[in-house]
Amino acid sequence: MSDHVAVIMGGPSVEREVSLVSGRAVEKALAGLGYNVTTIDADRSLPARLLECQPDVAFNALHGRLGEDGCVQGLLEVMGIPYTHSGVLASAMAMNKPVAKKLFAEAGLTCPEGRVCHYREVMAGDVLPPPYVIKPLNEGSSVGVHIVLDGDNQHRLEGEEWPFGDEVLVEKYIPGREIQVAVMGERALGAIEIRPRGRFYDYETKYTEGKAEHFMPAPIHPDCYAEALDIALRAHRALGCRGVSRADLRYDDEAGEPGALYLLEINTQPGMTPLSLVPEIAADSGIDFSQLVAWMVENASCDN
Protein backbone atom coordinates (compact mmCIF):
# COMPACT_ATOMS: atom_id res chain seq x y z
CA MET A 1 0.00 0.00 0.00
CA SER A 2 1.22 3.52 -0.87
CA ASP A 3 0.89 5.21 2.53
CA HIS A 4 1.42 8.87 1.65
CA VAL A 5 -0.54 10.43 -1.23
CA ALA A 6 -0.21 14.01 -2.43
CA VAL A 7 -3.46 15.17 -4.04
CA ILE A 8 -2.58 17.86 -6.58
CA MET A 9 -5.55 20.08 -7.35
CA GLY A 10 -6.69 23.61 -8.19
CA GLY A 11 -4.07 25.11 -10.45
CA PRO A 12 -4.34 28.12 -12.78
CA SER A 13 -6.59 26.76 -15.56
CA VAL A 14 -10.16 27.83 -16.30
CA GLU A 15 -11.23 24.52 -14.72
CA ARG A 16 -9.70 25.41 -11.35
CA GLU A 17 -12.93 25.33 -9.34
CA VAL A 18 -13.94 21.92 -10.68
CA SER A 19 -10.47 20.59 -9.90
CA LEU A 20 -10.75 21.78 -6.30
CA VAL A 21 -14.04 19.91 -5.92
CA SER A 22 -12.49 16.76 -7.42
CA GLY A 23 -9.43 17.06 -5.19
CA ARG A 24 -11.44 17.47 -1.99
CA ALA A 25 -13.58 14.43 -2.83
CA VAL A 26 -10.45 12.35 -3.47
CA GLU A 27 -8.83 13.62 -0.26
CA LYS A 28 -11.90 12.62 1.79
CA ALA A 29 -12.04 9.14 0.23
CA LEU A 30 -8.33 8.44 0.71
CA ALA A 31 -8.34 9.70 4.31
CA GLY A 32 -11.31 7.44 5.02
CA LEU A 33 -9.30 4.48 3.72
CA GLY A 34 -6.40 5.24 6.06
CA TYR A 35 -3.99 6.95 3.65
CA ASN A 36 -1.83 9.82 4.82
CA VAL A 37 -2.99 12.62 2.50
CA THR A 38 -1.37 15.96 1.69
CA THR A 39 -3.29 18.36 -0.54
CA ILE A 40 -1.40 20.77 -2.79
CA ASP A 41 -2.99 23.67 -4.64
CA ALA A 42 -0.77 23.69 -7.71
CA ASP A 43 1.19 26.84 -8.52
CA ARG A 44 4.86 27.59 -9.23
CA SER A 45 5.77 26.26 -5.78
CA LEU A 46 4.58 22.74 -6.73
CA PRO A 47 8.10 21.24 -7.12
CA ALA A 48 9.15 22.62 -3.73
CA ARG A 49 5.97 21.38 -2.08
CA LEU A 50 6.50 17.88 -3.48
CA LEU A 51 10.13 17.85 -2.33
CA GLU A 52 8.98 18.93 1.10
CA CYS A 53 6.25 16.34 1.61
CA GLN A 54 7.97 13.41 -0.22
CA PRO A 55 4.80 11.47 -1.18
CA ASP A 56 4.77 7.86 -2.29
CA VAL A 57 2.21 8.71 -4.99
CA ALA A 58 0.73 11.83 -6.54
CA PHE A 59 -2.99 11.81 -7.28
CA ASN A 60 -3.34 14.27 -10.14
CA ALA A 61 -6.76 15.87 -9.68
CA LEU A 62 -5.95 18.82 -11.96
CA HIS A 63 -8.11 19.61 -14.98
CA GLY A 64 -7.29 21.65 -18.06
CA ARG A 65 -4.00 23.11 -19.21
CA LEU A 66 -0.75 22.42 -17.33
CA GLY A 67 -2.31 19.69 -15.21
CA GLU A 68 -3.85 17.59 -17.96
CA ASP A 69 -1.66 18.24 -21.00
CA GLY A 70 1.58 16.53 -19.97
CA CYS A 71 3.24 19.43 -18.12
CA VAL A 72 2.69 18.25 -14.53
CA GLN A 73 3.17 14.66 -15.69
CA GLY A 74 6.63 15.63 -16.95
CA LEU A 75 7.50 17.21 -13.61
CA LEU A 76 6.44 14.07 -11.76
CA GLU A 77 8.48 11.93 -14.17
CA VAL A 78 11.60 14.02 -13.48
CA MET A 79 11.00 13.79 -9.73
CA GLY A 80 10.37 10.04 -9.91
CA ILE A 81 6.98 10.25 -8.21
CA PRO A 82 4.42 7.70 -9.46
CA TYR A 83 1.20 9.45 -10.47
CA THR A 84 -2.36 8.61 -11.44
CA HIS A 85 -3.86 8.77 -14.93
CA SER A 86 -2.00 8.85 -18.23
CA GLY A 87 1.64 9.69 -18.88
CA VAL A 88 3.27 12.65 -20.57
CA LEU A 89 2.77 11.72 -24.23
CA ALA A 90 -0.74 10.29 -23.93
CA SER A 91 -1.87 13.31 -21.91
CA ALA A 92 -0.41 15.78 -24.40
CA MET A 93 -1.91 14.01 -27.42
CA ALA A 94 -5.36 13.65 -25.84
CA MET A 95 -5.43 17.34 -24.93
CA ASN A 96 -4.55 18.38 -28.50
CA LYS A 97 -7.81 17.59 -30.28
CA PRO A 98 -6.49 17.66 -33.91
CA VAL A 99 -3.58 15.34 -33.04
CA ALA A 100 -5.88 12.95 -31.20
CA LYS A 101 -8.32 12.90 -34.15
CA LYS A 102 -5.51 11.89 -36.53
CA LEU A 103 -4.49 9.04 -34.25
CA PHE A 104 -8.10 7.91 -33.86
CA ALA A 105 -8.51 7.88 -37.64
CA GLU A 106 -5.36 5.76 -38.01
CA ALA A 107 -6.88 3.33 -35.50
CA GLY A 108 -10.01 3.06 -37.65
CA LEU A 109 -12.24 5.09 -35.34
CA THR A 110 -14.88 7.43 -36.76
CA CYS A 111 -14.76 11.10 -35.71
CA PRO A 112 -16.78 14.07 -36.99
CA GLU A 113 -15.38 15.72 -40.12
CA GLY A 114 -13.61 18.99 -39.45
CA ARG A 115 -10.55 21.16 -39.84
CA VAL A 116 -8.35 23.61 -37.99
CA CYS A 117 -8.98 27.26 -38.88
CA HIS A 118 -7.62 30.62 -37.82
CA TYR A 119 -9.88 32.44 -35.41
CA ARG A 120 -10.27 35.36 -37.85
CA GLU A 121 -11.44 32.98 -40.60
CA VAL A 122 -14.20 31.69 -38.32
CA MET A 123 -15.22 35.25 -37.46
CA ALA A 124 -15.39 36.18 -41.16
CA GLY A 125 -17.98 33.61 -42.20
CA ASP A 126 -19.08 29.99 -42.24
CA VAL A 127 -16.07 27.72 -42.74
CA LEU A 128 -18.32 24.64 -42.90
CA PRO A 129 -21.95 24.34 -43.88
CA PRO A 130 -24.01 24.74 -40.69
CA PRO A 131 -24.66 23.17 -38.33
CA TYR A 132 -21.11 22.93 -37.02
CA VAL A 133 -19.18 23.13 -33.74
CA ILE A 134 -16.36 25.53 -32.82
CA LYS A 135 -13.87 24.27 -30.21
CA PRO A 136 -10.59 25.41 -28.68
CA LEU A 137 -7.74 23.09 -29.68
CA ASN A 138 -6.77 22.17 -26.14
CA GLU A 139 -9.40 22.79 -23.48
CA GLY A 140 -11.64 20.37 -21.63
CA SER A 141 -15.09 20.32 -19.98
CA SER A 142 -16.65 21.96 -23.09
CA VAL A 143 -14.88 25.22 -22.24
CA GLY A 144 -15.18 27.59 -25.20
CA VAL A 145 -17.39 25.24 -27.26
CA HIS A 146 -19.99 26.92 -29.52
CA ILE A 147 -22.62 25.27 -31.71
CA VAL A 148 -23.62 27.18 -34.84
CA LEU A 149 -27.02 26.06 -36.17
CA ASP A 150 -28.44 26.70 -39.61
CA GLY A 151 -30.24 30.04 -39.58
CA ASP A 152 -28.42 31.50 -36.58
CA ASN A 153 -28.38 35.27 -37.02
CA GLN A 154 -25.54 35.89 -34.62
CA HIS A 155 -22.76 33.36 -34.36
CA ARG A 156 -19.04 32.78 -34.95
CA LEU A 157 -18.24 34.10 -31.45
CA GLU A 158 -19.43 37.62 -32.31
CA GLY A 159 -19.08 40.05 -29.44
CA GLU A 160 -16.93 37.66 -27.42
CA GLU A 161 -13.28 37.65 -26.54
CA TRP A 162 -11.52 34.43 -27.54
CA PRO A 163 -8.75 33.63 -25.03
CA PHE A 164 -7.91 30.17 -26.40
CA GLY A 165 -5.32 30.94 -29.09
CA ASP A 166 -5.32 31.89 -32.77
CA GLU A 167 -6.44 28.50 -34.07
CA VAL A 168 -9.74 26.73 -33.50
CA LEU A 169 -11.17 23.34 -34.43
CA VAL A 170 -14.35 23.43 -36.49
CA GLU A 171 -16.29 20.17 -36.79
CA LYS A 172 -19.51 19.01 -38.41
CA TYR A 173 -22.28 18.95 -35.81
CA ILE A 174 -23.48 15.40 -35.13
CA PRO A 175 -27.17 15.24 -34.13
CA GLY A 176 -28.38 12.70 -31.64
CA ARG A 177 -27.41 11.76 -28.11
CA GLU A 178 -24.50 12.27 -25.70
CA ILE A 179 -22.84 8.97 -24.76
CA GLN A 180 -19.89 8.72 -22.36
CA VAL A 181 -17.84 5.59 -21.63
CA ALA A 182 -15.48 5.01 -18.71
CA VAL A 183 -12.33 2.92 -19.15
CA MET A 184 -10.44 1.56 -16.15
CA GLY A 185 -7.14 -0.04 -17.04
CA GLU A 186 -7.91 -2.52 -19.82
CA ARG A 187 -11.65 -2.65 -19.16
CA ALA A 188 -14.50 -0.51 -20.47
CA LEU A 189 -16.81 -0.23 -17.45
CA GLY A 190 -20.00 0.95 -19.15
CA ALA A 191 -21.73 3.71 -21.09
CA ILE A 192 -24.00 6.46 -19.81
CA GLU A 193 -26.31 8.78 -21.71
CA ILE A 194 -26.55 12.45 -20.78
CA ARG A 195 -29.61 14.47 -21.74
CA PRO A 196 -28.97 18.16 -21.10
CA ARG A 197 -31.98 20.34 -20.35
CA GLY A 198 -30.35 23.24 -22.20
CA ARG A 199 -29.03 23.61 -25.71
CA PHE A 200 -26.11 21.24 -25.24
CA TYR A 201 -23.91 19.60 -22.60
CA ASP A 202 -21.83 22.67 -21.82
CA TYR A 203 -19.60 23.57 -18.86
CA GLU A 204 -22.47 24.90 -16.72
CA THR A 205 -24.64 21.88 -17.45
CA LYS A 206 -21.85 19.47 -16.54
CA TYR A 207 -21.26 20.94 -13.10
CA THR A 208 -24.70 22.25 -12.02
CA GLU A 209 -27.08 19.84 -10.37
CA GLY A 210 -30.39 19.44 -12.19
CA LYS A 211 -29.14 20.73 -15.55
CA ALA A 212 -28.99 17.28 -17.15
CA GLU A 213 -30.51 13.82 -16.81
CA HIS A 214 -28.25 10.77 -16.52
CA PHE A 215 -29.28 7.35 -17.84
CA MET A 216 -27.08 4.45 -16.73
CA PRO A 217 -26.72 2.18 -18.59
CA ALA A 218 -27.26 4.19 -21.75
CA PRO A 219 -30.62 3.09 -23.28
CA ILE A 220 -29.34 2.54 -26.82
CA HIS A 221 -29.41 -0.43 -29.16
CA PRO A 222 -27.48 -3.37 -27.57
CA ASP A 223 -25.14 -3.67 -30.55
CA CYS A 224 -24.34 0.04 -30.40
CA TYR A 225 -23.81 -0.16 -26.63
CA ALA A 226 -21.20 -2.87 -27.15
CA GLU A 227 -19.67 -0.85 -29.98
CA ALA A 228 -19.42 2.24 -27.76
CA LEU A 229 -17.44 0.26 -25.17
CA ASP A 230 -15.18 -1.10 -27.90
CA ILE A 231 -14.55 2.39 -29.35
CA ALA A 232 -13.63 3.78 -25.93
CA LEU A 233 -11.16 0.99 -25.22
CA ARG A 234 -9.58 1.25 -28.68
CA ALA A 235 -9.25 5.03 -28.30
CA HIS A 236 -7.66 4.57 -24.86
CA ARG A 237 -5.13 2.21 -26.39
CA ALA A 238 -4.55 4.33 -29.51
CA LEU A 239 -3.23 7.19 -27.37
CA GLY A 240 -1.38 4.92 -24.94
CA CYS A 241 -3.53 5.96 -21.98
CA ARG A 242 -3.29 4.28 -18.61
CA GLY A 243 -5.36 4.36 -15.44
CA VAL A 244 -8.83 5.80 -15.91
CA SER A 245 -10.11 7.67 -18.97
CA ARG A 246 -13.48 8.72 -20.36
CA ALA A 247 -14.52 8.69 -24.01
CA ASP A 248 -17.06 11.25 -25.23
CA LEU A 249 -19.21 10.10 -28.15
CA ARG A 250 -22.23 11.22 -30.15
CA TYR A 251 -24.88 8.69 -31.13
CA ASP A 252 -26.83 9.68 -34.24
CA ASP A 253 -30.08 7.76 -34.15
CA GLU A 254 -32.25 10.30 -35.96
CA ALA A 255 -32.96 7.77 -38.73
CA GLY A 256 -33.76 5.09 -36.14
CA GLU A 257 -31.79 2.43 -34.33
CA PRO A 258 -29.22 1.06 -34.59
CA GLY A 259 -27.60 4.44 -35.11
CA ALA A 260 -24.06 5.62 -35.83
CA LEU A 261 -21.43 6.40 -33.20
CA TYR A 262 -18.85 9.18 -33.51
CA LEU A 263 -15.88 9.58 -31.18
CA LEU A 264 -15.40 13.20 -30.09
CA GLU A 265 -12.44 12.96 -27.72
CA ILE A 266 -10.76 11.19 -24.80
CA ASN A 267 -10.53 12.79 -21.37
CA THR A 268 -7.45 11.39 -19.61
CA GLN A 269 -8.31 13.01 -16.25
CA PRO A 270 -12.08 12.84 -15.90
CA GLY A 271 -13.73 14.69 -13.04
CA MET A 272 -14.17 13.17 -9.61
CA THR A 273 -16.92 15.52 -8.40
CA PRO A 274 -20.34 14.43 -7.05
CA LEU A 275 -21.78 15.03 -10.55
CA SER A 276 -18.93 13.38 -12.46
CA LEU A 277 -19.66 10.54 -14.85
CA VAL A 278 -16.79 8.09 -14.29
CA PRO A 279 -17.67 7.51 -10.59
CA GLU A 280 -21.32 7.04 -11.59
CA ILE A 281 -20.43 4.51 -14.28
CA ALA A 282 -18.04 2.72 -11.93
CA ALA A 283 -20.72 2.52 -9.22
CA ASP A 284 -23.05 0.77 -11.69
CA SER A 285 -20.26 -1.81 -12.14
CA GLY A 286 -20.06 -2.37 -8.38
CA ILE A 287 -17.04 -0.11 -7.78
CA ASP A 288 -17.79 2.61 -5.25
CA PHE A 289 -15.97 5.95 -5.13
CA SER A 290 -13.45 4.91 -2.48
CA GLN A 291 -12.62 1.69 -4.31
CA LEU A 292 -12.15 3.62 -7.56
CA VAL A 293 -9.82 6.14 -5.97
CA ALA A 294 -7.83 3.42 -4.17
CA TRP A 295 -7.41 1.49 -7.44
CA MET A 296 -6.08 4.60 -9.14
CA VAL A 297 -3.56 5.20 -6.36
CA GLU A 298 -2.36 1.62 -6.21
CA ASN A 299 -1.97 1.52 -10.01
CA ALA A 300 -0.11 4.84 -10.22
CA SER A 301 3.22 4.75 -12.06
CA CYS A 302 5.80 6.66 -14.06
CA ASP A 303 6.35 6.09 -17.78
CA ASN A 304 10.13 5.88 -17.40
Description:
With 304 residues, this protein is α+β, with helices and mostly antiparallel strands. The protein has three domains: 4-85, Rossmann fold; 94-111 and 175-286, D-amino Acid Aminotransferase, Chain A, domain 1; 114-172, Dna Ligase, domain 1 (2-Layer Sandwich). It has ten helices and twelve strands. It has helices at residues 16-32, 46-53, 71-79, 88-95, 97-106, 119-124, 203-207, 222-238, 277-284, 289-298, and strands at residues 4-9, 36-41, 57-60, 114-118, 132-136, 146-148, 167-172, 177-184, 187-196, 212-215, 244-252, 260-267. Helix 1 (16-32) packs across helix 10. The longest helix has 17 residues, at 16-32. It is globular. The two termini are 21 Å apart.
In short:
The protein has 304 residues and is of the alpha+beta class. It has helices at residues 16-32, 46-53, 71-79, 88-95, 97-106, 119-124, 203-207, 222-238, 277-284, 289-298; strands at residues 4-9, 36-41, 57-60, 114-118, 132-136, 146-148, 167-172, 177-184, 187-196, 212-215, 244-252, 260-267.
